[in-house]
Hints:
It is built from 13 helices and 11 strands. It is an alpha/beta fold.
Amino acid sequence: MLNYKASPVPPPASTITVGALRGRLASLDRMRFDLFYELACPPHLARGEAETYRDALAEIELADRLGYGCAWLVEHHFMPGYSHSSQPALVLAAAAARTHTIRLGHAIVPLPLHHPVHVAEQAATLDVLSGGRLELGIGRGFSPQEYAAFGADMGASRELVEDALALLRLSFGSDPVTFAGRRGRLDAVNVVPRVVQRPHPPLWTAAVSPETFDWAARQGLGVLAGPFKPWFMVRHDIERFRRAWPGPGPARVGMTVGILCLEDGDRARALAGRAFPWFYGELYRSTLPVLEKLYPGYEQLHELGRFRALLRLGITLGLLDTFGMTVVGTPDECVRKIAKYRDAGVTNLLLAVGAGAVDSAIVRESLELIAARVMPAFAHAPHAAAPAA
C-alpha cells in the first residue's frame, strides 16, 4: 500500500497560477533543467513498484523546492524492469498534489494507441489539477508489441498522429468540435474539461528520425531527443530543426541525458558504471533496430563509424560518456560537459538522475548538488545563435 503525505492540492483555476506562470517565465532566457523518469525497477536494487513510485514522487517534490523546471514521465507498456510507467497521467496527478511550481510533462503519449479525445480530456484534467503546469508530448511510439496489443496499425502511424494532433488542437479550444477523421466523427461536441493554459499546454513531439525534426518545425512543436541517440547525431538534428523553425518564438529543444553529479567524482563514476550500462542496455534491447535504420542518414558524420564499432563491443560508461549520452562527475566536471548542449541550442535538459538505477538517497544527493552548483552556471547564459540558412 502506498502511503503519501500530500501537499495541498493546487486550487482549481480558470487562469494559470502565479507559481506556474513564474516557472514558465523563468525558463525563457536560460536552459531549463528538467527531470526524466522511466520508473525503472532494476533487479540489482531489489526495489518494488510501490517503492519506485514513492521514491519518484518524493524526488519530484524535492525538485520542486530546488527550482527544477519540469518532471517528465514516459509512457511505455510491457517493459518490466526498465519501465513501469504505463499510466504516467496518474503519477503526474499525484505529483500535482505534492508540488507547486515545477511543471509536469507527459513524454510522450503514443497517439496511435489512444483516441485523441481521451488524450485531450486527460491532458485538460492534468492541466486543471496542476493549476496550468502541464507540458504535453506526443509521438508515434516504437514498439510493435504495443501496436499489436492495442490493435493499432503501425504502418499508418504517421497518418494517425497527424490526424490525432489536428483533433487534439481543436479539442483544446472553447468551441464545439466537429471533425471527421481516421478514429471517427464528432458533430459539434463539447470536450471538457477545458485546459487552463491558452491556447493549450506547450506541445512537444518525440523526435528520432531527421524527417520528424522537419515535421515538428512545420507543426510548431518542441522536440524531445534522446536518450538512445549519440550526441553527434542529435546535434546534427538540432541544427536541422533550428534552420527549419519558422517561429514565432524560439525553437524548443529537449535532450535527455543520464546524469550523476556528486562531490566525489570517482564515487559518481563507480556508481554510474553499474547503473548507466544497465539502463542503456535495457533501452537498446528495444531501440537498437530503430537506431540502425537511421544510420544511412548520418553517414556524412565522421563519428558514426567509431560509434558503431564501439557499440558492438558492449555498452560501457566510457562509451556513453564519450558520445555525450551521459554526464558523470563532480559539479565542475558536469558544468563543462553540459555546456555543449546549451551551446548547440538545447533549451530543456532532461536529466535521468541515476537513470532509475541507483538508490533514491543518492538521487536526492545529486539533485541537491546540481541545483546548488551546476544550475547557477547556466542561470543567465544565452542559447546558441540561430544557424545560418
